Amino acid sequence: MNNCKKARNVQDDCIRIIALILMVTTHSNKQSLSPILLSLLPVITLTCNGLYFMLSGKYNLQFDGTTPSDYLNYYFRKFTNLLIPYTIYSLAYFLITQIPIHGRISLGCFLSYLINDNCLNHLWFMAPFFGAVLSAPFLSKMFQKMTNTELKVLLVVAFSWEFLRLFLVSGIHFSFYYRDWIFDDWMFYFILGYITERLYDEIKIKIIYMLGLCSIFITFLLNYHFVNYSENSLDFSPVYIMVVLFFYLFFRHTISVKNIHLQKVFTFLTSYVFGIYAFHPLFLSKIGDLFNPNISDSWQIIWIFVLMFKVLVTILLSLALTLIIDNALVHPIQKLCWKVYSHFVSAKT
What we know:
By secondary structure, the chain is mostly helical. It has helices at 10-26, 35-45, 47-60, 68-102, 107-115, 126-145, 148-171, 186-198, 205-224, 238-254, 260-270, 273-290, 300-348.
């Protein structure tokens, strides 16, 4: 029944790198673009959030532990691989951005920044992600025991719920407070990653691709021609979910990265995606100020290359800072934590 447990491969690394590039592009200054490109680009770049949650759900919902030690190992891995880097990156970002402004900082200020302010800046996604990861070991038991038919029923219910909410709130502007569906918002993408892998052999890929392309056009049309009706047309719209699913399947199962050198690049960069994303705002705005040519609408293609150049330079500079912080702080602290944990576990046995 559970046929989604496959070895981690370079295609997933490819999606992570693509999602990173899309994320950085989303935060870039795009005001020089023509109205058509300004309406089209978010339709593509904002798929990064859904792609990230789908990949995370694909892996985290494969937990199959049964003993207390299995759960302890799972949560300790999340503590070392997720919470430690998140805290250190947040601290580094806080120091770099706040010391020049305030001169002095305190532990209380940082804790307030970590707990509250991070939910309002570019690391906002960590708030729903922590909840998803915390719930994953228990949800995985439910999903792994469900048949493929039951998973399809769940998808129908989830899509119907998203459509109902979108129609009532954005369509007829009706207040809709009955929205505490357990798999709402980003949690839907989280489970969609697992379900997609489970049901892949039954998916009519050509139909999904046709629906995805139509969804791209519909979303673009809403944002370009029908702005008054474009509210909530991204992220959780059922139409936009099809856009994200289209890109996920395209990069995961259709595009094949066979070049060994490119595979090594993806594998290397994947280890530093979190840090690159955490630090990219430090460089993006400054690079944007340096490279912001005034280009006429007839030469928009040049501005696209300028945008790509800014994103590339931002990623490289963020990678350099991540390498320094990882080697100086993150990796040593992770190794120390694992050493203490291993000693604790061996002492108990």
